[in-house]
Amino acid sequence: MSCHKVEHEFDSGDVLKTVEFPLSAMEDHDSLDLRLQVAAKQLSADVADHFIEYWNAATPQTAGSSHPQWTEAQRQLDFTQTVEQILRRTRAFGPLECIAHLGSTILFVRRAVGWTESHRVPPGTVVHANSLSLVVAVCDGYIGLTEWSLINPDAVTGTLRR
Fold this sequence. Notes:
With 162 residues, this protein is an alpha+beta fold. The chain is 29% helix and 27% strand. The protein has 5 helices and 7 strands; from the N terminus they run ββααααβββββα. The protein has helices at 29-49, 51-56, 72-75, 83-93, 153-157; strands spanning 2-4, 15-18, 98-102, 105-116, 126-130, 133-138, 141-149. A hairpin with a 2-residue loop joins β6 and β7.
């Protein structure tokens, strides 16, 4: 996370201060969001306390990178993928939800768990249902859909995520 001087040209201001922190392999949408909020609070307090010093020592930005807005296709769960790939996607989207197609039913998935296990069940087959939990076969194990709904929140609020 970094704090920059504001310039007329987008994303061109010199860097006042940068903080870095490692990401865990199990990082999810919520943990990263909270970590960024805490880092922003700490960074802004540090910059405020040392503003003149950081302003005078600011360094030009180096080549950076950006990531485009995610697409609906990236929110899709593909049950032919591995447990690890599917869990990474559900962690990344979390409360923004992934979209799972189970037959003709569309689920909006907030949370999933999973494990690897050999089996001969075709990927995408629901092998167990208990209350609101569903267990779906994937190529190398099973995914448990533990928080999901049939209703897309965007349809309720009338907004469209892009």
